[in-house]
């Protein structure tokens, strides 16, 4: 509905508000995608990666591939 100035009921702010809402929506979508991508990459490298490395270290020590000193040193590095 047109008023005296030729604008709609919102006084010309309707397009501005739509642009602001679109920008906010795009920022939210980008944020969610970034969190999903980061979540997928970090899940395998934090505790899971260290647990796997420690398991491999234990297996190598059990096979006799590492001396006691080497095993203790590498274990200390993995746990830090």
UniProtKB/TrEMBL annotation:
Work out whether the entry's keyword set contains Membrane.
yes
Q: Name one Pfam family in it.
A: SHOCT
Name under which the protein is recorded: Putative membrane protein
Q: Which residues cross the membrane?
A: 12-33
Which segments constitute the SHOCT domain? 52-78
Q: Which UniProt keywords apply?
A: Membrane, Transmembrane, Transmembrane helix
């Amino acid at each position: 509905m047109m008023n005296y100035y030729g604008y709609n009921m919102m006084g010309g702010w309707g397009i501005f508000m739509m642009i602001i809402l679109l920008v906010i929506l795009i920022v939210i979508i980008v944020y969610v995608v970034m969190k999903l991508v980061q979540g997928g990459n970090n899940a395998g490298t934090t505790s899971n990666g260290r647990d796997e490395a420690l398991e491999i270290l234990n297996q190598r020590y059990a096979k006799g591939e590492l001396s006691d000193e080497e095993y203790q040193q590498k274990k200390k590095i993995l746990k830090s």
